[in-house]
Design brief:
Layout (H helix, E strand, L loop, with lengths): L2 H9 L3 H10 L2 H8 L4 H8 L4 H9 L3 H10 L2 H10 L2 H8 L4 H10 L2 H11 L6 H4 L6 E2 L5 H11 L8 E6 L2 E7 H6 L6 H4 L7 E2 L4 H11 L3 E5 L5 E6 H19 L14 H28 L1 H6 L7 H24 L8 H31 L2 H31 L9 H23 L3
Parallel strand pairs: 1-2, 4-5
Antiparallel strand pairs: 2-3, 5-6
């Protein structure tokens, strides 16, 4: 939908036309369209959305839009919205809103919902408890299929998912049963006979990244969450796991680019905010790169005797940095996907060493031939070829070992990505280069 046309309809008070457009649009697309409106237009347009769709649209809005609407809503409008909003979406919203609006919302909801919200908010940040929903379908083991289906029809409209149902007895999880299994079974079959007892569960303190990995590994639609006493307290659904994966990937990408991760999107972050997230790492890398300059200064005499040595420094440093980045990227990805563990460090080093030898030989020969053709200098070709070979081996070793050591130390492997590795490799490549040059040229 074109924003200009949509805005024009709003300004011309063509509310019936606007409502017709919103009625046929997907909730996610509506949230995206409304994000381009100013606050007044946003409030007008949102009130024209069908009541049964409004909560889903609200859940897909960014934090600034949600804050704006909560500030503008009357208590009655806010109460109606919260009644239709799933509990995990409500908790996510509350985690981002200013304190005064959180207080207003808690005063609006029922005591039962307030207790649930407060319990969810008290779970550790980034844990399964903090992202789970308490709105799931629970069944009794002695019910027959007909009774279970009647129960689903009665309560399903208020639950986040009805495909997977949870068989409980006094809050203890006995098994799971899918709607598909019940739909194809006879009405008289007892749920106990249909339920699957071999289950993957998590507890409320399980790290949300681990939960997301389970979704990726087993292709779940939902995972049950148990408290420390083994009682079923909620479920994590696929959409929440996807949000976790996006957040974790975003965090890793920013760290790999030597920036501090932020909560807001690119356009929501101010210029000062962007600068603030980038300056600390740039300062660290800039001053650490000064070590390379100090080393180069130490070999001024070598430059004076063989000035052409200087021209190969950028090539050596860039090649080493690129090789280290290649290795670190693959290892960080392997760690993220649980393909590589710290116990595999010797296998990883062995494989990367073999790769570095092949890459080093090919690049060293190519550069050696290039120098021989252009400069007709065998000693110079030998220096560059040997330095390049050693630099590639060292850089790939650094690139594969550092992320694994970081993981073992409890740090984020993404910290050991391109910028840091490039800085370390630059120092190593200069030491190797001038070490080889001083011996070959006897400087």
């Amino acid at each position: 939908m074109n924003r200009e046309i949509f805005t024009a309809l709003l300004q011309q008070h063509q509310y019936q036309a606007v409502r017709s457009i919103l009625n046929v649009m997907n909730a996610v697309d509506i949230a995206s369209l409304l994000s381009e409106l100013d606050n007044k237009e946003l409030a007008f347009a949102f009130r024209l959305i069908q009541k049964e769709k409004a909560a889903e649209v609200f859940a897909n809005m960014n934090n600034s839009m949600q804050t704006c609407l909560v500030e503008l809503f009357s208590d009655k409008e806010l109460r109606e919205l919260l009644e239709d909003l799933y509990m995990d979406d409500t908790v996510d919203m509350l985690g981002e809103l200013p304190a005064n609006l959180v207080t207003r919302i808690l005063d609006t909801v029922s005591q039962k919902d307030r207790d649930t919200i407060n319990r969810l908010l008290n779970y550790p940040e980034d844990s399964a408890g903090s992202i789970m929903t308490t709105e799931y379908v629970d069944l009794r083991p002695d019910w027959c299929v007909a009774e279970a289906m009647a129960h689903i029809k009665e309560v399903g409209i208020h639950k986040e998912t009805i495909y997977t149902c949870y068989v409980t007895e006094k809050k203890r999880l006995l098994g799971i049963v899918t709607a598909k299994d019940m739909m194809v079974a006879d009405d008289h079959v007892v749920i106990r006979e249909l339920m699957e007892q071999e289950m993957i569960t998590v507890n409320t303190n399980t790290d949300q990244e681990e939960v997301a990995r389970l979704f990726r590994k087993y292709d779940f639609l939902a995972i049950p969450v148990l408290d420390l006493e083994g009682f079923l307290v909620g479920i994590v659904t696929f959409d929440d796991a996807m949000d976790v994966l996006i957040d974790e990937d975003t965090e890793d990408i920013t760290k790999m680019a030597a920036m501090n991760p932020g909560e807001k999107s690119y356009f929501e972050t101010s210029i000062f905010g962007h600068a603030k997230s980038r300056i600390p790492w740039l300062l660290i890398l800039m001053f650490s790169a000064a070590i390379t300059g100090t080393i180069i200064t130490k070999y001024e005499n070598a430059f004076a005797v063989v000035p052409i040595l200087v021209s190969f420094i950028p090539m050596l440093m860039d090649t080493g940095g690129n090789c280290g980045s290649q290795s670190s990227t693959l290892i960080i990805r392997g760690i993220a996907l649980d393909e590589i563990q710290f116990r595999d460090i010797f296998r990883v080093v062995s494989k990367e060493f073999g790769v570095s030898l092949i890459v080093g030989i090919v690049l060293a020969v190519a550069n050696g031939l290039r120098i021989m053709l252009i400069y007709r200098n065998t000693a110079l070709a030998l220096v560059v070829a040997l330095s390049l070979m050693a630099t590639i081996v060292i850089s790939k070793m650094i690139g594969c070992i550092l992320p694994l050591l970081a993981k073992k130390a409890g740090l984020d492997p993404a910290l050991m990505a391109s910028p840091l590795i490039t800085t370390l490799v630059d120092t190593c490549s200069i030491l190797i280069y001038f070490g080889v040059a001083t011996r070959v040229f006897e400087l």
